[in-house]
Structure formats: C-alpha cells, structure tokens
Inverse folding.
C-alpha cells in the first residue's frame, strides 16, 4: 500500500528527511519514531504530497499512485478517500460552527461516497462512538472522541491506508489505550495499512509490526518492532528506550 525508495526531502537545500526504504502492506502497522525535529512528520506529509516548497527526490507509491509524478487531481482523489491523514489535534481542522454529521456528510459527498445517515452511524459505531455524536459540535467532544471521529471519517470514506501523526500524544493514558485499540482492531478486521508517527516507544510496542527510528532526518535503525525494541543496535534507540518511565 505504501512503497518508498530513497526518499529525500529538502528545504532550501537543507536535508530534513532521508528514508532509504519504507514499505507498509495491507493489514500491517509500521511506526516511525524519534524525538521532535527528527523528520518523522515531514516524511509522513511527503507521502501525500503535502510538503509545500520542499524539494523531493526518490520514489513514493501510495495505493498504486506515484505521488511525485501524479497530477494534482490524482492526488486529491487518493487523499482522504484512499489514504487518510489523522493529525495530532483533529479538532483544529473541524469547523467550530458545524455539527460533526454535517462535516462528515460534506466530506463523503466531495469524494462521491455514501453520505447516508446509516453509513455515517455505522462508521462512528465502529470506533466505539455513539451515533448521537454526529449531532454535536467540535467543542462539545473530548480529544479522544475527536481522534476517533477522524478515524471514523476515514472508515466512511473507505480508506485503505491511515497515516497517523502522534494520534495519542495529547490524550491521557486510558484514552490512548482506547484509540490504539480501535486502530489495532480496524487493521486486523479491515486489512488497513497503518503508518504511525510517534515518540512514544511504549505505545509503539503494543501495535507496530516494524519500526523505523529517525534522528536528525536520517533513519538510524529499522526492523521488526520486537527486535528493535528488545535489542536495539543503535545508541540513539537505546537512549529512547532508557528514557521510558
């Protein structure tokens, strides 16, 4: 679902992300971990062609589309409908004066998807939300509910890939577990490909199949999550693990 080779992202000639290989298959979860400024989010945005004013080289394939050569129209067709981006604070992207149900219906119609009440209700219930939430405004829901609503929208659109950028960093531990549980279940039941960006290695260990560790824009270690997190080979990965509470 995601195939990346020799990806390099530069701003003003400065290399900010260098990813030799990144593959995410159907039903698989790959996590990119590292401290702030390591290039994680830049890599994620590059996969959808959302890095404005950046110089990008290499190969990026998402849902069979060559992101670097695709037309703006082709990119719009895969964004949301086939590959959904779930941000750290989804409430900021929700119109404050519009009910969630109206927001979801507009997005579904924009992509030519089923915008019926039944389809929307089914999507929110799949992420363990009551359908009544569709009548609420963004300020009337919690951060965890906003994250699950963003995931529900991706489900309703029929997304095959979810790219999640620090989806639990602003949530308390209990709500974090709920969101991760939803993502894990959807991956298993729907065969979603999940690319997760996080600085939380404890969280990553509960869901990821493979891990890429980034530092200063470069991938310093990668491999199966169990191996990387249990016996890291790079000093930076060991530092991240030692910093866990």
């Amino acid at each position: 679902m995601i195939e990346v080779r020799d990806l390099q992202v530069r701003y003003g000639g400065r290399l900010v992300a260098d990813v030799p290989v990144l593959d995410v298959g159907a039903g698989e979860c790959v996590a990119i971990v590292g401290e702030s400024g390591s290039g994680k989010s830049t890599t994620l945005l590059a996969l959808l062609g959302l890095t404005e004013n950046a110089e990008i080289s290499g190969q990026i394939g998402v849902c069979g589309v060559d992101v670097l050569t695709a037309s703006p129209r082709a990119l719009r067709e895969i964004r949301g409908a086939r590959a959904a981006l779930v941000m750290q604070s989804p409430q900021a992207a929700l119109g404050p004066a519009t009910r969630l149900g109206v927001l979801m219906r507009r997005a579904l119609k924009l992509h030519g998807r089923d915008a019926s009440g039944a389809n929307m209700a089914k999507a929110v219930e799949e992420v363990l939300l009551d359908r009544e939430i569709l009548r609420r405004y963004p300020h009337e829901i919690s951060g965890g509910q906003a994250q699950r609503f963003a995931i529900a929208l991706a489900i309703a659109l029929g997304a095959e890939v979810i790219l999640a950028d620090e989806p639990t960093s602003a949530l308390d531990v209990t709500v974090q577990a709920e969101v991760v549980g939803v993502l894990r279940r959807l991956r298993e039941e729907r065969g979603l490909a999940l690319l997760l960006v996080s600085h939380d290695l404890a969280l990553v260990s509960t869901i990821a199949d493979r891990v890429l560790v980034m530092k200063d824009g470069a991938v310093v270690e990668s491999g199966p999550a169990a191996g990387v997190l249990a016996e890291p080979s790079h000093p930076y990965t060991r530092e991240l693990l030692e910093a866990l509470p």
Summary: Residues 2-242 form a domain with the Rossmann fold fold (CATH 3.40.50.300). The chain has a mean pLDDT of 90. The chain has one domain: 2-242. The beta strands are 2-11, 14-24, 29-33, 55-62, 65-66, 83-86, 161-165, 193-198, 210-215, 218-224.
